[in-house]
């Protein structure tokens, strides 16, 4: 009998498999219902894993020329049906990533079975017994191997599961910018702009605290015996920035310096005999509390985080690329060989702050995706019964911004963070504050020149959407997609258009403009990678803008202020603007205010004379968000830090006075004056809610 060959095509990913010939999608062997067009779209994505499949490609493949359909609606509906059947989420995708305005990408590598299956004639009666015996022997050997493997793996669940959650703090003011640490009995933390060290029992209960000598401290690590914290002070004795490392007893004793070491990060070895620390692009080790130290390895960027493995054989750390500001996870072993650590999420990652569980079974890491941070759990022990794909801890709910693992039990402690906005109106004559739109979570309002319209950002944690409304709070119109994170917006002088500073997920900050009546979003066609702080020139056709400061974007790029003409497409640099950003045009359009890149100077530029004049120098405090008074006679600027305030500067002679201290008037850790009306300032504030939670896992 002649042999025949069949080549079935089956794509397997996770618990799913798609059979091309059978036109079926199955999960764990169970057939799932999926219509024809969604099936063919999923098949196309599986045929190009990790690649961008454009919307035009899908249109040409599934909606031939001459087919009269609403293609956009049809494709969006089909993608939604695929996500529904896969249990996928568009905001935190596991399988299908939306590339805004371009297409889609399948994130998970798909195993394709396409080996030929030979259909042979029935065996002869003479060889039948021998073949059957061989099959039985092989089957028995395979069964024994599977039983052994399963028994070995029974002590490890197939995936990490959170079995219990308990909220430990309820004040909402745990610092989202500092690490938390635990000795297994208490969790230690700092609060925003507070010098006290706080702790709370791991089982819940009242928090304790004691004062420390630090200003804006950051916990780096805790010693293996739980007696001492490594703490970095952010502000030194002189008021300038500092990276000095201190040893702080958890029982309230006095702090002592780690030699004369300044470092971005540091961590104890598991046996407590050594401390590793990072200075820019090099890692060091000290075994005598900083008296002497030696270089371990060199890296390719700054190292803001590090941890030793529980057995002390590996040092795993975060490296931040100096140009892109994207972070990745790396590891160094005893042989000083450095290599990157793959996280198996099927896409480029921006990862940080990894920690091991006490038994090394799992490695938790934080991912920044778009404007959101989440923690993932990756299995450290490989097995053929495990997918190797990390699992998301937060489930797309509250952000997780910090985490630490218990050394005594299977528990993880995390800082869950949410954020909303609020606005106050500050009466300059009476020096009184009153809420503005108190029922809404909004920030950063701007008003049209006739005062009839306003634009502002509706804020919820990492989502910031631009809205336009009448000044009385009526006639609301949404202007931007929720996936586009909006920094702020400004009206043109004639009130017809709005310039927007915003960014898509995983993309740099850009400037766009949109009609005040809504419609398409137009990106500036300029050769500047990162753009910030748009303002309109008096002609209503040109936008002046700067570039983000170094901590906000590419640190090595030169910074300057530019003017872009929407009519001609030309771009010109403001003379002498190198090293300045955040331009604010005066009401008459003849001058501008700008900040120095280090955020310690405010200057005035005159377009007629092309001359710059320093108005404010603040060596000890950062300043930001300059504002003009409506009559052009005054400038307002914010100072940041524990005692943030608003300064008023008279333009003609530079006389400066403090008119508002936030710490004395507003119970919010982050406030700033944002815009000026005739007799008042509008104050924009963040309303964070950060608490510590205990997660028990299996």
Can you characterise this structure?
The protein is mainly β and 698 residues long. Among the domains are: 4-113, Arc Repressor Mutant, subunit A (Orthogonal Bundle), CATH 1.10.10; 122-153; 162-415 and 692-697, Methylamine Dehydrogenase, Chain H (7 Propeller). Helices cover 10% and strands 46% of the residues. Helix 1 packs across helix 3. The longest helix is centred in the first third of the chain and has 29 residues, at 125-153. The chain is globular and about 105 Å long. It starts with a strand and ends with a strand. The model is unreliable at 1-7, 65-69, 114-125 and 383-387 (pLDDT under 50).
CATH topology of one domain: Methylamine Dehydrogenase, Chain H
Number of strands: 56
Mean pLDDT, all residues: 85
* Helix percentage range: under 10%
Largest sheet: 6 strands, antiparallel
Distance between the termini: 56 Å
CATH architecture call of one domain: 7 Propeller
The computed structural class is mainly beta
**Number of helical runs?**
5
CATH homologous superfamily assignment of one domain: YVTN repeat-like/Quinoprotein amine dehydrogenase
The radius of gyration is 30 Å
């Amino acid at each position: 009998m002649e042999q025949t060959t069949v080549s079935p095509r089956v794509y397997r990913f996770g618990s799913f498999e798609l059979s091309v010939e059978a036109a079926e999608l199955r999960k764990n062997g169970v057939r799932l219902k999926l219509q024809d067009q969604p099936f063919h779209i999923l098949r196309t994505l599986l045929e190009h894993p990790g690649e961008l499949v454009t919307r035009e490609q899908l249109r040409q493949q599934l909606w031939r020329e001459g087919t009269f359909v609403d293609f956009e609606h049809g494709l969006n509906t089909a993608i939604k049906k695929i996500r529904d059947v896969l249990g996928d989420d568009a905001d935190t995708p596991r399988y299908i990533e939306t590339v805004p305005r371009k297409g889609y990408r399948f994130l998970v590598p798909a195993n394709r079975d396409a080996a030929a299956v030979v259909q042979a004639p029935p065996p002869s009666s003479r060889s039948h017994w021998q073949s059957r015996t061989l099959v039985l022997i092989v089957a028995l050997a395979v069964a024994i191997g599977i039983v052994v493997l399963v028994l070995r793996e029974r002590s490890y669940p197939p995936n990490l599961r959170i079995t219990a959650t308990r909220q430990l703090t309820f004040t909402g003011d745990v610092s989202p910018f500092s690490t938390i640490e635990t000795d297994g009995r208490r969790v230690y933390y700092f609060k925003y702009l507070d010098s006290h060290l706080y702790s709370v029992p791991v089982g819940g209960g009242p928090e304790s605290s004691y004062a420390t000598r630090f200003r804006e401290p950051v916990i780096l690590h805790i010693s293996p015996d739980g007696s001492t914290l490594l703490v970095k002070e952010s502000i030194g004795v002189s008021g300038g920035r500092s990276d000095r490392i201190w040893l702080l007893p958890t029982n309230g004793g006095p702090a002592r310096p780690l030699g004369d070491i300044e470092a971005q990060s540091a961590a104890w070895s598991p046996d407590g005999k050594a401390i590793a620390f990072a200075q820019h692009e090099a890692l060091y080790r000290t075994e005598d509390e900083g008296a002497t130290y030696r270089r371990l390895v060199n890296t390719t960027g700054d190292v803001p985080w590090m941890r030793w493995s529980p057995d002390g054989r590996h040092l795993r750390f975060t490296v931040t690329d100096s140009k892109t500001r994207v972070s990745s996870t790396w590891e160094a072993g005893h042989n000083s060989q450095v290599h990157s650590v793959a996280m198996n999420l099927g896409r480029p990652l921006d990862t940080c702050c990894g920690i091991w569980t006490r038994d090394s079974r799992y490695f938790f890491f934080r991912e920044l995706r778009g404007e959101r941070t989440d923690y993932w759990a990756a299995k450290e022990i490989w097995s053929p019964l495990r997918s190797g794909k990390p699992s998301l801890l937060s489930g797309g709910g509250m952000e997780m911004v910090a985490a630490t693992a218990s050394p005594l039990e299977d528990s993880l402690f995390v800082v869950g963070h949410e954020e909303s906005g609020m606005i106050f109106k500050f009466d300059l004559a009476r020096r009184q504050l009153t809420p503005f739109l108190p029922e809404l979570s909004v920030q950063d309002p701007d008003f049209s020149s006739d005062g009839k319209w306003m634009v502002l950002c509706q804020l919820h944690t990492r989502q910031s959407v631009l809205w336009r409304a009448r000044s009385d709070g009526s006639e609301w119109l949404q202007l931007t997609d929720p996936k586009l994170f909006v920094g702020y917006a400004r009206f043109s002088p004639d009130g017809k258009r709005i310039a927007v500073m915003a960014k898509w997920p995983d993309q740099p900050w850009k400037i766009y403009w949109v009609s005040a009546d809504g419609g398409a979003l137009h990106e500036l066609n300029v050769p500047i990678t990162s753009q910030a702080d748009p303002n309109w020139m008096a002609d209503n056709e040109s936008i002046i803008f700067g570039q983000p400061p170094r901590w906000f974007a590419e640190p090595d790029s030169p910074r300057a202020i530019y003017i872009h003409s929407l009519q001609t497409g030309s771009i010109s640099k403001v003379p002498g603007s190198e090293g300045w950003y955040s331009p604010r045009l005066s009401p008459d359009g003849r001058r501008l205010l700008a900040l120095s890149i280090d955020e310690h100077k405010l200057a005035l530029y005159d377009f007629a004379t092309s001359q710059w004049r320093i108005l404010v120098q603040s060596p000890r405090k950062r300043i930001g968000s300059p504002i003009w008074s409506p009559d052009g006679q005054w400038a307002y600027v914010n100072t940041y830090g524990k005692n943030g305030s608003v300064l008023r500067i008279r333009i003609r002679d530079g006389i400066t006075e403090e008119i508002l201290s936030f710490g004395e008037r507003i119970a919010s850790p982050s406030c700033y004056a944002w815009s000026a009306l005739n007799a008042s300032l509008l104050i924009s504030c963040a309303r964070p809610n950060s608490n510590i939670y205990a997660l028990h896992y299996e």
